[in-house]
Amino acid sequence: MSVFEHGEFDKHERVAFWNDEKTGLKAIIAVHNTYLGPALGGCRMWPYANSAEALTDVLRLSKGMTYKAAMAELKLGGGKSVILGDPRRIKTADMMESMGRFVESLGGSYYTAEDSGISVDDLHNMAKHSQYIAGINAKYQYTGEPSDGNPAPSTAYGVFVGLQAAVQHKFGTGVNGLTVAIQGLGHVGYRLAAHLHAAGAKLIVTDIYPENTQRAVEEFGATVVAPEQINSVKADVLAPCAMGATINLESIAGIQTSVIAGAANNQLSTEAMGEMLRQKDILYAPDYVINAGGVIDIYHQRFDSSAAAMKSHIERIGDNLSAIFTRADDENKATNEVANTMAEERFKY
Ligand code: NAD
User: Can you give the residue ranges of the Glutamate/phenylalanine/leucine/valine/L-tryptophan dehydrogenase C-terminal domain (predicted)?
Assistant: First the structure.
């Protein structure tokens, strides 16, 4: 298996492999770039078909974190870790402790946190052997209320701020009276709906679980559509808050909104979708910029800040997006392309 020749390898500083026969842990940590600070990125446990697939994922995701941290104005670089295996079948406390030793062995160049398949309990087990575990012992929410450790309130607030910036750029107004279509009413989508409702927006929502949409009907007077209809409803803003790649060759023709601004990761099936949205005059808020509230939250909790500093940092997501939109207009470029360029201007290899 090649690393330096790998298609997703892009000047990564460090790629480390760990094999612990005693606990069965097989893991990879990739540190993409530490120019702005130590690398931060979640630990993902997934039943990869083979180690090549796991390597591809960790190389790609760690690079994405460098861009995300740079655009979020964090003094952090990008990294990621992956554990090979089905978390429901093979994960044990001992294995997580071994993962902690692996993280510790990098001497602080990489901080880990939660991702798919890894819970806060798992992080606590890692923390028995490493000081470089983030996403645990959260003290406060951005509102100043105590935190239960879930960064979703910060993510949702950041998306709300970013969506407002996009609406301001596109329509020159606030969200009051506009219609927003939300795909997915989970941890982030539901909270986004609450912010939008309080600000006077009308909501069209969908989810695969009827209890989630029913709650939005009762609390926010939302209109419900079927999951397969959400990408083509008549509305002002589309907010993807479920899964990735929902903006693709199939869905793009049906999109009727003038703005796309939501929490989901990897919303564009390919980077070329960004240019297609530009040609359709649809303003796209790059996903990793608008959904950075969660990583900003983790940063402030870990590096001992305050709720007020965290809140104003999250609010800068709006300014960052406005800068991207203006530059994209000036240079006649897609917003995702401009976001990548601006991130690259902030870190060096
Ligand atoms: P979640 O699992 O709590 O919510 C996702 C919701 O989408 C669920 O209610 C689910 O039922 C629904 N859903 C799934 N498939 C659907 C479909 N086909 N149509 C309609 N609804 C569907 O997840 P979350 O934490 O709210 O995160 C939402 C998105 O935002 C994810 O892409 C996640 O990666 C991204 N994100 C989350 C955070 C965070 O802090 N939680 C941070 C950054 C990015």
Answer: 149-348
